[in-house]
Design brief:
Blueprint (H helix, E strand, L loop, with lengths): L3 H12 L3 H20 L5 E6 L4 E11 L5 H4 L4 E3 H4 L11 E6 L5 H29 L5 E9 L5 E5 L2 E5 L15 E12 L3 E7 L3 H11 L1 H4 L3 E9 L3 E8 L6 H6 L4 H9 L4 E6 L4 H8 L7 E5 L7 E7 H8 L4 H10 L2 E7 L13 H14 L2
Parallel strand pairs: 2-3, 7-9, 11-12, 14-15
Antiparallel strand pairs: 1-2, 2-4, 5-6, 5-8, 6-7, 8-9, 10-11, 13-14
Helix pairs in contact: 1-2, 2-5, 6-9, 10-12, 10-13
């Protein structure tokens, strides 16, 4: 077995793992093989000399006092001082006796056992390396090819060396895939199943997927000029994204939307036509909630339970704006609530709020913000 270290290095290169991991797997294989041949309860240690391309296996026995019962109960691992002195007169309690253990003495049995153990531990190292590789990608967009779709509408996706699973609940309503399709999805988490091995759970419904797609499309988000503070989605229908920037010369909304909406439309197309509202973030909750409820124009915002986890915002709104605030099937108010982390309650007040024909661009939003600011000083 003198050339085995060369074989280990070749295996590391072939399997795509580091030499250190391969050598660690070799150590574990040697120890387990020694245990099979020399006693399962025995303690073994391995030293590897890479310079001389050699290794040694040692059986390690600890010296204990003559009255210690472990010397009789576990003779594989413990020896009394009296018995140990037959090996070395200077030996003391607590010392260790290391005896070299030679696998070669067991012939083909040792070689066969070592091969099986080495194969097993190398495979575990490959899986561990893959696990760490993909765990570092959790929360990012991955691209893969659909390999099959089962009877439960679970979509299996080949991503590099691993298979990902996009379950029906993690798929946008109404979309379907067939074998051979290339899809993008967010890597939700990595798990190892004892029966099926390692697999990746994918999703296309998480708000984080929308954020990662926008990061890919918008250079200003990639380089940190514009930051996504929060997002909320009703997958396949509508979404809201709160953006901010610390630079006065950058319009975060304009950067995200792009010229003629080219950037935001590309993201929307990937999400089956999901409508995406880009909102400028404000650290002042009254202003932020006002913007989150756009396109509705609101009269007043009052924050309740400000210092508790059950934060609530009472929003005064006229009857003509109430339907806009709620949105179709309650989508707008739900998204605004998820985005702002406030429970929003609408309070209908008298009057009519209308945009004048001359109002355009951001003016209505600006007047809303001023109105919300004024409320802070009432």
């Amino acid at each position: 077995m003198e050339k085995i270290l060369n074989i280990i290095e070749a295996m590391a290169h072939e399997k795509g793992i580091s030499e250190e991991n391969a050598l660690q797997a070799f150590k574990e294989a040697l120890i387990n093989t020694a245990k099979r041949l020399g006693g399962e309860d025995a303690h073994f240690e391995v030293t590897i000399d890479r310079e001389n391309q050699s290794y040694q296996i040692y059986r390690v026995v600890t010296v204990v006092s003559d009255t210690d019962p472990r010397a009789e109960e576990e003779p594989e691992n413990y020896i009394s001082v009296e018995e140990a002195k037959s090996y070395d007169e200077d030996i003391e309690e607590g010392d260790q006796i290391r005896t070299e253990f030679h696998l070669e003495d067991f012939g083909r049995t040792a070689a066969s056992n070592l091969f099986r153990e080495l194969e097993y531990h190398i495979q575990r190292r490959i899986e561990q390396d893959l696990f760490e590789k993909y765990r570092a990608k959790v929360g990012t967009v991955v691209i893969g090819t659909v390999s099959r779709v089962d009877d439960n509408e679970n979509t299996y996706v080949e991503i590099g060396e691993i298979k990902g699973i996009l379950s029906q609940r993690n798929r946008i309503k109404g979309e379907s895939f067939k074998t051979g399709d290339t899809i993008k999805a967010l890597l939700r988490f990595v798990s190892i199943d004892p029966k099926y091995g390692m697999h990746l759970e994918l999703t296309r419904t998480a708000p984080k997927f929308l954020e990662e797609l926008m990061k890919r499309e918008v250079l200003e988000i990639q380089d940190g000029t514009v930051e996504i503070v929060a997002s909320s989605r009703i997958p396949g229908e509508r979404a809201k994204v709160a953006l901010k920037t610390d630079r006065a010369d950058v319009d975060p909304i304009g950067a995200a939307v792009g010229q003629r909406g080219v950037r935001i439309n590309a993201v929307s197309a990937e999400l089956c036509g999901e409508n995406i509202d880009c909102i400028e973030y404000s650290p002042i909750p009254e202003i932020f909630i006002t913007r989150a409820l756009s396109p509705a124009i609101i009269r007043n915002v009052k924050i309740e339970n400000k210092n508790t986890s059950q934060q609530k915002a009472i929003v005064d709104i006229t009857s003509d704006q109430k339907a806009k605030a709620i949105g179709k099937s309650g989508i707008n108010i739900r998204l605004a609530s998820m985005l702002s982390k406030y429970q929003i309650e609408l309070n209908e007040v008298e009057g009519i709020t209308e945009r004048s024909p001359s109002d355009s661009g951001k003016e209505p939003q600006k007047s809303n913000d001023i109105s919300a600011l004024e409320n802070l000083f009432k």
